[in-house]
Design brief:
By secondary structure, the protein is an alpha/beta fold. Strands 1, 2, 3, 4, 5, 6 and 7 form a seven-stranded mixed β-sheet that branches. It is globular and about 65 Å long.
Length: 261
């Protein structure tokens, strides 16, 4: 991992910023118009990624910095649910061509990259985060994906550099936004689903209803144990019909922090 010199606020424990590299690539690619070398090779994603990386280094001055990528092949989630992310468009050829160059840029910056076939980049980030926290390092996950919010605790936060001047989401911010604690995010997503990843959730149960149910019962398991206590007959009917979908959705939404890297 790249080793720099100070924590984000210039004091306290050391910090590691772990970047969702695939998401960074997409954002850079779509943020800029067509850029190319004199021989026609596209460079917009390379340029945009490098600008965002340099801005992060200069603004946050992390002690450690690493990037995780998706491999681009089916993961254990696809094996479990063939329609997982089924509606996602394939990566544009113009971006595919630039990913190896982006990795070479990261190598030139001496920033380590990590990926593992069968897993997503977020699983790799979670695994790195778990190891770093054990070493007493504060971790910032650089991503806009709400899946990562389940990992938030006293030592792990989510940093979204694309929101305003950069938003740091701690446990209180997660609860203020979604109405549940970070450790309850997976159960919330099991009920409400996630259209971005094509996680089904329980049909007819939206975010507000899901949050209310998790607040009242504490967890998905407790909700189904106490299903008869759900005040709305319509909600009970939907939950009964969607029990298997809820269990599958929780499995799909759960990030694996034990990737063998």
């Amino acid at each position: 991992m790249d080793r720099t010199h100070s924590s984000p606020d210039g004091m306290g424990s050391q910090s590691a910023f772990l970047i969702d590299g695939t998401a960074f690539c997409y954002r850079a690619f779509h943020a800029l118009g067509a850029l190319a070398t004199s021989d026609g090779r596209p460079t917009n994603a390379v340029y945009g990624f490098t600008v965002m990386l340099q801005a992060l280094r200069e603004k946050k001055k992390p002690d450690y910095l690493a990037v995780a990528f998706d491999v681009g092949k089916p993961t254990f989630r696809h094996a479990r649910f063939k329609d997982y992310k089924a509606h996602r468009k394939t990566m544009p050829e113009e971006l595919i061509e630039q990913v190896p160059v982006i990795k070479r840029v990261l190598g030139a910056y001496r920033v380590s990259t990590f990926e593992m076939e069968g897993f997503e980049g977020e699983d790799v980030l979670a695994t790195l985060a778990r190891a770093l926290v054990k070493s007493g390092i504060d971790v910032y996950l650089v991503t806009g994906d709400k899946d990562a919010l389940q990992l938030v605790n006293e030592r792990i936060k989510v940093y979204n550099p694309h929101k305003g001047d950069g938003a740091v989401l701690d446990a209180s911010a997660v609860e203020a936004r979604f109405g549940v604690a970070p450790k309850q995010m997976v159960d919330l997503m099991a009920l409400m689903g996630d259209s971005a990843d094509h996680i089904p959730g329980v049909s007819g149960i939206g975010e507000k209803t899901a949050a209310k149910l998790i607040q009242e019962f504490g967890s998905l398991d407790a909700l189904y144990r106490g299903l008869g206590k759900v005040s709305s007959a319509a909600w009970r009917k939907r939950l009964e019909a969607g029990k298997e979908a809820a269990a599958l959705s929780r499995e799909l939404a759960t990030i694996d922090d034990s990737v063998p890297i």
